[in-house]
Model the fold of this input.
Amino acid sequence: MVSAPRSAAGLALDFLLPLRCLCCEAKVASRDGLCPRCWQNMPFIERPWCQRLGIPFTYDVGEGAWSPRAIASPPVFDRLRSVAFYDGPARELVLALKFSRRRELARSMGRWMSRSGSEFLDRDSLIVPVPLHWLRLLSRRFNQSADLARSVAAHCGGQFEPEILKRRKRTRQQVGLSAKDRRKNVRSAFAVDAARKGHLQGRHVVLVDDVMTTGSTISACTRVLLAAGASSVDVLTFALADPSVRSGNGSLSV
Done:
């Protein structure tokens, strides 16, 4: 299919404001893309992977296989899918979105996430971001997970639902906490909004966050959603930061 020619104004804008790599700002040929170097260094998570946790195997063990970790400790959610490991350009994009307020990045990051979660995303899915406490939202001015969830919903046609899940307790930052302390930190931290609870009954939820580390936050949110009536919960993140799933070559050791 031949695309429509760019307008004179559009060409002039590209000349005056050259297209830049989302990560390193090198010149690129297409809008909302990465340069060859950043693309090559992006630690994408690719098949074959664990059916439950979405972490890659070093070799193909068959369709629908579970990793030893998923077998030993099945997650409360159904499936987890992530675009990349939290390293290199993926880490830089997450930090730029979250702390440098580059909210425009959510558009492309959400597009990649929608591809990673294509097996469970559909028009009937409720796309729910992991919420911030209102005081943290007030200071940060935006929730990066909500921006990502909005983008995912736009690409898959699902229903963006930023108000269903609430963070009712102001928790400590999870960065630097042990797995045990992370679980304790988010205990009883989340609740379903009473006014939206009816909308949740019997629905499939896709829970969206920027990064998953130990899964404490995701698991706490999932338990609350299931207890409130959701039929199932799948999880979609941009990055996976848990170092225990990576071997020296960046894959899950089986």
